[in-house]
């Protein structure tokens, strides 16, 4: 049975590494474990007011913890058949006092976190090669986790900046008064919004997890600002100025593209025909207002 235990360990290590790769390095940003954790947490906290704001950050921590635990257990299963014969112990440790699997978990955890206490040392040649590989995997996991936090922070900052910009234009009555704005300036403003919408679309693809972060500030919430952006696009399309109409068409296309992605990825499924963009945005707003904290 030793080979079966080791094979199970290898499978766990590879499964965890595969999920890390697809979450952080794959352009689609869709790891199986991470997607499942975020989706389950989102559904569980839809009606919980205060918990709703924590679902995104808590899910990130939970996913990283699962990655680390899977790596520790996977490597431990690889080591278990070789305990105690494949290891040397310090003089005050009797390996007979410990269950082989838990001793392997201890050694695996110390190796993955690069603590290296030195009380348990592999002596079989291939184990002496394998232990540094696990330490390297642990360092890579730590680096990947830190990179993930930075990646999510950047995507969220861009999304909130876009929402705040649109909210400010809405408060200034831009959709109703853009005909009074110098037309070249109005076109530039509208196209800048379209560009930021496209960036948000890319961020949702590459950092899917950002969908599950709710915003306390309504003005910085994209789920609310998209309605205002749609009104700006409609007003621009009705403008008598050709340049403004062109910019409105660009914004309209960007919003429709984002609506199609939101429907396929989060709100309706890829196999169903997406409704009109305003209806998708209504569903998006409703999905994010559930569990929203107030104050």
TrEMBL record:
Residue stretches making up the Potassium channel domain: 92-147
Gene3D superfamilies given in the database record: 1.10.287.70
Keywords for the protein's UniProt record, in alphabetical order: Ion channel, Ion transport, Membrane, Transmembrane, Transmembrane helix, Transport
Entry-linked Pfam families: Ion_trans_2
Gene Ontology BP terms: monoatomic ion transmembrane transport
The keyword Transport appears for this protein: yes
InterPro entries in UniProt: K_chnl_dom
Domain of life where this protein originates: Bacteria
The keyword Membrane is annotated on this UniProt entry: yes
Parts of the chain that traverse the membrane: 51-78, 129-150
Name used for this protein in its record: Two pore domain potassium channel family protein
Upper lineage: Bacteria, Bacillati, Actinomycetota, Actinomycetes, Micrococcales
């Amino acid at each position: 049975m030793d080979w079966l235990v080791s094979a199970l360990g290898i499978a766990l290590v590879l499964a965890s590494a595969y999920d890390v790769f697809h979450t952080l390095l794959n352009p689609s940003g869709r790891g199986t474990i991470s997607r499942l954790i975020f989706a389950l947490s989102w559904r569980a906290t839809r009606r919980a007011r205060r918990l709703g704001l924590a679902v995104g950050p808590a899910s990130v921590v939970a996913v990283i913890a699962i990655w680390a635990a899977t790596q520790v257990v996977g490597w431990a299963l690889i080591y278990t058949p070789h305990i105690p014969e494949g290891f040397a112990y310090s003089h005050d440790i009797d390996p007979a006092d410990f269950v082989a699997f838990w001793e392997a978990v201890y050694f695996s955890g110390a190796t993955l976190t690069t603590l290296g206490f030195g009380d348990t040392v592999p002596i079989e040649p291939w184990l002496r090669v394998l232990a540094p590989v696990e330490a390297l995997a642990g360092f890579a996991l730590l680096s990947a986790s830190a990179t993930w936090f930075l990646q999510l922070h950047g995507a969220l900052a861009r999304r909130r900046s876009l929402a705040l910009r649109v909210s400010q234009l809405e408060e200034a009555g831009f959709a109703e008064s853009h005909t009074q704005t110098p037309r070249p300036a109005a076109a530039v403003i509208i196209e800048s919004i379209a560009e930021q919408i496209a960036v948000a679309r890319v961020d949702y693809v590459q950092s899917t997890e950002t969908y599950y972060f709710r915003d306390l500030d309504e003005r910085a919430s994209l789920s609310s600002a998209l309605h205002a952006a749609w009104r700006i696009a409609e007003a621009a399309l009705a403008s008598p100025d050709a340049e403004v109409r062109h910019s409105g068409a660009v914004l309209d296309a960007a919003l429709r593209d984002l609506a199609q992605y939101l429907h396929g990825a989060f709100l309706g499924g890829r196999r169903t025909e997406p409704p009109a963009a305003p209806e998708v945005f209504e569903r998006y707003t409703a999905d994010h207002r559930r569990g929203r904290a107030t104050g």
